[in-house]
User: Fold this.
Amino acid sequence: MPEPYGLCRSKVVPLLVDNVDTDQIVPARFLKVTDKAGLADALFRDWRFDESGCFLEPLFVLDRPGMAGRQILLVGDNFGTGSSREHAPWALAAWGIRAAISTGYADIFRNNALKNGVLPIVVDPETHAHIAGLLEDDPDAELTIDLAEQGILLPDGTTIEFDVDTFARLMLLRGTDELGYLLNKTSAIDAWEAAHPARVDTRTEAASSGS
Amino acid sequence: MAQQARTLVEKIWDEHVVAQDDGAPAVLAVDLHLVHEVTSPQAFTGLRERGLPVRHPERTVATADHSVPTTPRGLPILDQMAAAQVQQLTVNCREFGVPLHGLGDPGQGIVHVIGPQLGLTQPGMTIVCGDSHTSTHGAFGALAFGIGTSEVEMVLATQTLLQRKPRTYEVRVDGRLAPGVSSKDIILALIARIGVGGGTGHVFEYRGEAIRALTMEQRMTICNMSIEGGARAGLIAPDDTTFEYLHGRAHAPAGPAWDQAVDAWRRLPTDDGATFDRSEVIDASALEPMVTYGTNPGMGIPITSRVPDPDAASDPAARRALEHALGYMDLRPGQPILGQPVDVVFIGSCTNGRISDLRLAAAALKGRHVAANVRMMIVPGSDEVKREAEAEGLDEVFRAAGAEWREAGCSMCIAMNGDQLAPGQYAVSTSNRNFEGRQGKGGRTFLASPLTAAASAIAGAVADPRRLPGIEAVAGIGGR
Assistant:
């Protein structure tokens, strides 16, 4: 069960590249795990390490001094494009990321992030540029993300409001998950299924083919 | 009361909404859940932790495709982690009663190849899988999309998902394709035009004369890459081509149920007067074979074009992205893409690993030889495709041409199974993603059609399939 999503107060890791795909976030060869352990080391693996596991030079942003422990990622447009691997938000969360700020995310990545305590905040391009500029002036600037109030508090005391799916927000704030919600819908599911016969039976052919 | 005009997607959506609370997403019923070894283990673990069964194992089907080697099946899986993952799938399916087409089963294959092949994929259904290329099944007029592992767990437990209704995006493809230009080129041209995020938040519906003229397998190639255009799903209305493909397949309705099903399916196409949130029109007759030059599927050009110049980019971010991509690919701005030497040619994947793709490749390769500097891998999308190809003698054509003929799986599309590029190598691939490292760390991918791939294998460099001798006859080969 996830933790209730409280205030997120942190310095920011800037990764201002558009269309960062999930093969960069976690390369496919790390998808052979059957659990969620160890994915922090797979995060952005090929942008951080060479074949022998040594840091690439120059260091990737995550590995630069002062970045460890930061919880907010400022990313380019359409972040998380590509595959449906939930290993991407698992790896981000394992590294310590709790929120991203972008002008947009790929649909499946956004859904997956919301289920893993990684809040995918969308802002307009002007606001995005404003935050990027602010971090250029002060790379150690701290932001406070208040999901309950749907606001990002900037160091100058101003607040940027953001939209978030109302349902996902509630789930995060309460630390409940969607499966619990769906299990409470069992009687509605029973009723729907009673009125809609199954479209296929996957067992018949598999049985005849001997598996 | 007259029913409001609705699109294909809206009709399927409306029928599958189980419940919807104020402010909450819809609880959407799932007709068919496809499962594979990579995105399911943590979901089964979640079920165990909660003490939940799989609600409908008989609406669920599993196969092993992503991490399986494509070497002869008698050999063990050398990669210990891959072997453990495949074994875990077997254990999970046995424990929860899910039918499995595992290694050695004649039904094994890439999950998006076997669903249609078994007749499990049918019009009007909702289909999900923990894999973004689930959009493939949209070719049958099904609402099919990829989900994450948390959602896999939800579907296993409840046979439903929480979903917001997607917006609709019409992609109309008019006219006729020229010989040597294929459905892969249509979808690469669309993505090059709208970009990899162009369809975000939307579901595509492909329509128009050029789409109607395509076979089911050609339609699957287009719908497969909807996700590369940012749309989780892409649909094509069912028609006689769809019904002909389905009729007689193992899980398709039979007898009187078939006629009833077809009657229902004929009511699915978008009503006259229904509107889409967005629209895009492509002239098929103006298309050339397409090839990508960069590190996302939107970085594609007609094959006779030159590699774009970052200095001509519209904004600084686009310029930086292009510079970075060309740096990774080690290509020069303005160079022709034709004639670029390649090391590997890969024909296969859920995009282009079906029998008609292999027939095209064989027709192009027959009596010719793969260039001396090229390794060509041909990987059937399923065990059935492999048997079919061998029954037609295609494997002999491939071997005689110097290509490798392998076992079914995702292979070099995802490079987590032993099939991969070496750093710096160039490949023409019929797969769907050219991201950095996608086909192996440091590997460089040119996405293209099977015909372009075969022509390139012969030439040892990116080549125009329209220059293959007898291309009209070759391009006419296909079926389904």
